[in-house]
Amino acid sequence: MEEKIKTLSALYATHFTAELDRVRLRTGKVTERIKIDHPAAAAILPFIDPAHILLVRQWRYALGKETIELPAGKADPGEELDVCALRELEEETGYHAERLIPIFNFYPAIGYSNELIRIYGASGLTRIDRVIDEDEIAQVEVMTVDHALDLILRGVIHDSKSALGILLFQARQARGEIPQDFFG
Amino acid sequence: MEEKIKTLSALYATHFTAELDRVRLRTGKVTERIKIDHPAAAAILPFIDPAHILLVRQWRYALGKETIELPAGKADPGEELDVCALRELEEETGYHAERLIPIFNFYPAIGYSNELIRIYGASGLTRIDRVIDEDEIAQVEVMTVDHALDLILRGVIHDSKSALGILLFQARQARGEIPQDFFG
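^ inputs. structure came back:
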């Protein structure tokens, strides 16, 4: 247990708050902790067929470079994560998914953020008539699951949700935990 | 490419800075982005023997609960990540490692932080005569790799570095990428 003594400073953004707190540790020592209060998010591993997935290329301001990732995004206030997953998939790839299964819930940055990301597998994809959100997404790519796994092991796919989504879908598949009818 | 127009506000902590920036997107649209400028960190998957690893229990202020994780920590200014890994392992578990191999470099929170975590596998462990950092670590646990994998799939181990370290060590082992002499 660590107990807040006071908030020393804070930064308020549209979607979250960062607080620097003075904190008393279990041992009695007084120190500072940062805490980002962040909405939950959904990430989607979208299967075109059992061997092929969709990934998105996007610019990441915090890194100053373009990355290849699973489609993903923050939940709107009051929005359920499965609804968020379907919405983000449509906005970022232009595909609607018929089926979603939860793959993993995780905390990306447990040292300073309470953000939770829920990763879903998605299948039964159909192209819908909508424009992709070009403010966020530069390009949508189709690749084999095997190639995506290679890109993880070579360090090209290097963000937590994308690597975890691909690795854990495969781990659950190997254990027979993906429902038989997932791929339709 | 996204271009900073100006910094709207900032929060300065001892080890990092959070900035809220007004930004011009590729498409011309003006929006806000947050950017946490964070030091790199090392995480360690420490093998007592080929079947058993060490994990640490610690309180996470941002979540308000205790977690089970790989030992890990931020690099000190100018500190190489392999040196950081050995230091954090000693501080958090009381073990020195003879061998370190890099397993994965990743960005935990690519949407708002430039933090990079490098995960190492560690072996050749010997107990050293030092007190564990009780401000950070509540308990050190030994468990089998198989049990740790179960805890991931059941959502008990739920932070990005711990799940990725265990999954990717196994993936590299399955591909014959872990050196023969790693376990001595």
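The mean pLDDT of chain B is 94. Chain B touches chain A through 61 residues (CB under 8 Å).
thumbs up if we can close this ticket
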